Amino acid sequence: MAEQDTSQEKTEEPTPRKLEKAKEDGDIARSKELNTSAILIVSAICFLVFGRMMGTTMMRIMEFCFSFDPRASWDVIVAGEYVSVVAGEALLSIVPLFGFLLLAALFAPIGLGGWNFSTKALAPKGSRMNPLSGIKRMFSMNSLVELLKGWGKVIVVATAAILVLISLKNEFLSMVFQPTESAITHAVEVIAWSFLLLAASTVLIAIVDIPFQIYSHTKKLRMTMQEIKEEYKNTEGKPEVKAKIKQLQREMANRRMMSDVPEADVIITNPTHYAVALKYDPNAMPAPLMVAKGVDEVAFKIREIGQEYDVPVLEMPALARSIYHHTRIGDEIPEGLYVAVAQVLAYIYQIDQWQKGNMKQRPPKPQTPIPDDLRADE
What we know:
Layout: H1 2-8, H2 16-24, H3 32-66, H4 76-107, H5 131-138, H6 141-167, H7 169-174, H8 180-220, H9 225-236, H10 239-260, E1 266-269, E2 274-279, E3 289-295, H11 297-308, E4 313-315, H12 317-326, H13 338-355
Parallel strand pairs: 1-4
Antiparallel strand pairs: 1-2, 2-3
Helix pairs in contact: 3-4, 3-8, 6-8
C-alpha cells in the first residue's frame, strides 16, 4: 500500500534522462496553436506580397477562358491545350504561396519542442484503440482546456473580424465604383490585409497555449522519488557494482603501470612503504619521468619487478616520499627535484662503472637536496 501511494505522488521534476527518453518516444511539448498561427500569418504575408500578381493572373485566366472559341471545344487537342495553359498559369501563380507555407509548416515547430523525428510515435498503440481510454480522454482536463481554447479562438477571431469589417467598410463599398481590373486588384489587397489582421489575432491564443503545453508536458513526465532512485541505479549502476568496476579499473591501471617498471632507470624506495620508478632518456626527454609509484603492497611489487629485471633500487626515504606526493604517473618530476634526481642518476651510473671495474672505489651515496615546499614528511 505504501509503494502504491508513493507511485501516485509524482512531485519531482523529470530528470534529463526521462526527458530524453520521452523525446525518443516522440513525446515532446507541442503547441498546435503556435503552428496554426505561424502558417496563417505566413499565408497572409504571402497574399500581401504576391496578391497583386495572383489577382492579375486570375484576371488573365478569366479573360482567356471567356474569349474561348466555342468551336474549339469540339477539338480534343485544342481543348487540351487550353486546359494546359490555364492550369500552368494557375500553378505558377500559387507556387510561391505553397512554397512559403511549406517552409512555415517545417520551421514553426522549432518555436516549441524543436524538430523531432521518432519512429516510435508512429507505432500503433493498443491504448489509442481502447474505448475506455478514449472516454477518459474526452472528460479529462486537457479536453476541457481544448474546449475553452476553441471557444476562445471563436471569440477572439470573431471580435477581430467584426473590427476589421467595421474599419474597412468604406474600402469594400468603394470597389463597386471601380473598374473591373482595379476592383479585383483592390479586393485582393483588402482581403490580404484583413487576412493578416485575423491571423495576427490567433497569436493571442498561441501566447496562452504555449505555457500551458509546457506545464502540461512537464506535469505528465513528473516522477516519484522511487522512480528517480530506480533510474539512478539503472543509469549509474548499483554501488557494489560501481565499486567492483573501480576495483577492476585500478587493477588494470596497476598492470599497465607494472609493465613500465622494467624500462625504468632507477627505483627509489622509503624503503618499505613507498616506491617510485623513474626513467630518463636525455635524447628524448627534457626531464626524468615517473613511470610507476605505489605504497605498501604495490611498492613491494614494484621493488620485486625491479629486482627481477635488474633495475637499480635505491633507498632514499625523503626523496621517495617527495616524488610520490608531488608527481603523477607519466609526468615529469617537479623542477625543484631536478638536482636531487640528477645526483641519483649520476650515482647509479657511477655504481655501474665501479661494478665494471672502471672505478677504483665505490662512489659515496649522494646527499639529495629537497626544497621545503616539496618535502613530504611521514
